[in-house]
Amino acid sequence: MATVLPFRAVRYNPAKANGPLDALVAPPYDVISAEQQDALHRKSPHNVVRLILGRQYDGDSPTDNRYTRSARLWNQWQDEDVLITEKQPAFYIYEQSFEVALGHPPRKKAFTRRGVLSALKLEPFGEGCVYPHEETFPAHKADRLQLFRACRANFSPVFGLVPDEGSVAALLARYAGSRAPDLEVREESGVTNRVWVATEKPFCKELTAALEPRKVFIADGHHRYETACNYRKERREAEKTKPKGEKPYDHVLMMCVPMSDPGLVILPTHRLVQAGPAFSAAEFLKKAEPLLECREAGETELAALAEAQDGAVRYGVVMSGRKVILTARPAVAEAMRKAAPGKSEAWRALDTAVLHELVLKGLLALGPEAASPHGSVAYTKDVGEVFTRVASGECSVGFVLRPSRMDQVRATAENGERMPQKSTYFSPKLLSGLVMRKL
Fold this sequence. Notes:
alpha+beta, 14 helices
């Protein structure tokens, strides 16, 4: 069972912070480009990017670096009341209204997604009711652990999904509809973020009870969650004894979104392959024919795959002078059993798993991540970029993927497996700096 609790958040004080809230918040660290990092630093001397992704300098040392500078600012801003700690524990209802551009040419569709920010009791993966669904990178976890050690804080929430049959969603909707939000900020991308601070004890008790029997599936923030578990282990070892009672580091800042929420949007990540000089489109299709049925198609039909979720595994493939749809033949099932014998049927049926195992590794003889003598793979969420980069000669092959389904995310996680990297992209990202938490 999930232990989800209200907590005393650390938030910006509008009377002391330099700039409005939209100048103080930032996306999660792992989606901030170098250009965005500079732009966020320029927005305000109090922008949260200075905590989550400070600048690095040539003269950095073990005692003066991006992590120690983040810690100094974190403490300084609290001393100066730029950041203040809530007087009462609360749940924070977090709503995002946004538009997603779908298809090619793109058309916009509006969505609203709602969840609750809380303190979730940490459970190592495989030992409780918290489940991952994607692979992680050791380097990212090492980076976040240094920030945890220096600042002893959660600056960005982990994004979790909870099965709810509509009950949790109804509870959140009822509260959000009862009054105006306490915080509202509109991003340059057009996403509107709203937060309600819920301190009422009857509501908090009701929400805790509603969430308690649920499993939690990590949608985004796997590195932060695993790092929180590693940090807890370090702190416990440093104290030389298991602490009596729970400590703040036994929990992590978690956004719980009901799986029934109609605003849960999973976008696909398309693949761009730069193959070796010997690559031939005709030879590739000939090798693929025993596994994948080939049919010529136009750009509109290929782009529509980025919204499709039904039927057999299939991809839109763009090559110089060719646009085709490849659909899995029955032989794919046996080929996947041989390629990934230790995986479940659910995992072997994933579009990304078939692409990585049979197409990228098998037909094109390259791995999904790093460059090899046979070529390399890049990623994009923009279908139009697939067409333009292949047409310009920057890439040899572009694969247009379908989005993963929510039931696939859940089934893979419950089987104790992880989807291939970049199998899901939950849009939009949760803002850092709206609500923070001390450890």
